[in-house]
Design a protein that fits this description.
Largest interface: A-B, 74 and 94 residues
Number of helices of chain A: 2
CATH architecture of the domain at 100-204 in chain B: 2-Layer Sandwich
Number of strands of chain B: 4
CATH superfamily of the domain at 100-204 in chain B: ATP synthase, E subunit, C-terminal
Radius of gyration of chain B: 47 Å
Order of helices and strands of chain B: HHEHEEEHH
Strand order of the largest sheet of chain B: 2-1-3-4
Structural class of chain A: mainly alpha
Oligomer: heterodimer
Order of helices and strands of chain A: HH
Structural class of chain B: alpha+beta
Number of helices of chain B: 5
Distance between the termini of chain B: 113 Å
Shape of chain A: rod-shaped
């Protein structure tokens, strides 16, 4: 048969149960905060994603640069071909300009 | 309520409270971690955007530099041929002048007439090259005739000062207050500045 003393003991056990639960809850929250801090810290310090993105981007830029220079080299080759072919005509034109109508360079 | 029932109720309430505390802590932990994951994602996204901005700037600079380099390469080819045109034209003019061909003599007459028409006065001094002395009288005679036909009667004299030039003439009044430079060099320079577009068009026509 329970006595008042048993009731007091039971109350102590009840307080202990709650106290242990509170301790465990604090630990759970502390753990969560520690993990959260670590997660954010790691994320901010993680260079791998940015490095990969930068390397990919730089490679794309290099390709575009090469393409521009390749096109200009092709254009230069075409110009070289046309100039070589039309050189005589251009020389004749200049000579005829010089021998043809005059122009004033000096003055009073 | 008996003492036994009171004891049971105490235990039940304690266990219930403990369960509630743990559940709340669990919920709080999940919230903390979810928020951290969200922040981590945002940090990654910020970094991605920052890297994207750096790349865009790098691309702008690199491609602008490539376009300048491309234009320089093309421009070098055009300049090379333009210079070649004038070097070769100068060589041909030298040859024409040195052989004193009829083309050269005709050009000299026209140069003198053109110069005189643009100057005021009746007597003009003509500076020529030393090498052109043998054809000087003939050129002056033809130039006077040509000017006379166009209603300008003038006296032309060979200047005692000889000019150092590839060919052509310099015409000036006796008092030297007016002059007209009609040398190959001046005409080449003028041709280059006035006809650059036409020359390039000729060089580049398909």
């Amino acid at each position: 048969m329970s006595t008042i003393r048993d009731l007091i003991d039971e109350e102590k056990r009840a307080r202990l149960i709650i106290s242990e639960a509170e301790d465990r809850a604090r630990k759970m929250i502390d753990d969560a905060r520690r993990k959260a801090d670590e997660l954010i810290r790691n994320s901010e310090a993680d260079e791998s994603v940015a490095s990969e993105q930068m390397a990919r981007g730089e490679s794309e830029i290099a390709k575009k640069r090469e393409e521009i220079l390749r096109e200009s080299d092709e254009e230069a080759k075409k110009i070289d071909y046309l100039c070589k072919r039309n050189l005589e005509e251009a020389i004749d034109f200049v000579v005829s300009c010089v021998l043809g109508e005059g122009h004033e360079l000096g003055g009073a | 309520m008996s003492l036994e029932e009171l004891k049971s109720e105490l235990r039940r309430l304690a266990e219930e409270e403990a369960k509630r505390i743990i559940e709340e802590a669990d919920e709080e932990s999940r919230r903390i971690l979810a928020q951290a994951e969200d922040e981590a994602k945002k940090a990654t996204e910020r970094r991605r955007q920052e890297t994207g901005r750096k790349l865009a700037e790098k691309e702008r600079v690199e491609l602008a530099s490539a376009r300048i380099e491309a234009r320089r390469r093309i421009s070098n080819v055009k300049s090379k041929y333009l210079d070649q045109v004038f070097i070769e034209a100068e060589n041909r003019l030298k040859e024409i002048a040195n052989k004193k061909t009829s083309t050269y003599q005709k050009a000299m007459v026209n140069y003198v007439a053109e110069a005189v028409k643009s100057l005021e006065g009746n007597t003009f001094m003509i500076q020529i090259r030393r090498q052109d002395q043998p054809i000087a009288d003939r050129i002056l005679e033809l130039a006077e005739k040509s000017l006379s036909k166009s209603g300008k009667n003038v006296t032309l004299k060979i200047s005692p000062t000889q000019m150092n030039s590839l060919g052509g003439v310099i015409v000036h009044t006796e008092d030297m207050r007016q002059y007209y430079v009609n040398t190959f060099e001046s005409r080449l320079a003028k041709t280059r500045s006035e006809n650059l577009g036409k020359i390039m068009e000729t060089l580049l026509k398909s």
